[in-house]
Write a structure and sequence with these properties.
Strands 1-2-3 form a three-stranded antiparallel beta sheet, with no helix packed on it. The chain has one domain. The chain is of the alpha+beta class and 88 residues long. It is built from four helices and three strands, in the order βααββαα. It starts with 5 loop residues before the first strand and ends with a helix. The relative contact order is 0.15. A hairpin with a 6-residue loop joins strand 2 and strand 3 (55-58). The protein is elongated and about 45 Å long.
């Protein structure tokens, strides 16, 4: 595990699992707190060599709204609205 460059981890409840994910990383105490606060089934933490700092990623629910947007049955966003939704 210590030779893995980039790690993706969801919520972990067992201390042994958390220790295994964090093996070989600097700043384990801060990362331990981040892993403990993840929302189960909603968030993952990207960390390690491939990302400059740990990144929290929230997953999307596959509900009716998702499928409407995916299949194009929802109103199309304007460019300005899309940029606003992305945080620009």
């Amino acid at each position: 595990m210590s030779q893995l460059g980039t790690r993706v981890s969801g919520w972990l409840g067992d201390e042994n699992d958390i220790a295994a994910v964090l093996s070989g990383l600097a700043g384990r105490d801060a990362l331990r707190g981040m892993l403990a606060r993840l929302q189960p089934k909603e968030e993952v933490l990207l960390l390690g060599w491939g990302v400059p700092m740990p990144i929290l990623v929230r997953s999307r629910r596959y509900d009716d709204d998702f499928w409407k947007q995916l299949l194009g049955k929802d109103d199309r966003l304007t460019d300005a609205q899309a940029m606003k939704d992305l945080g620009f």
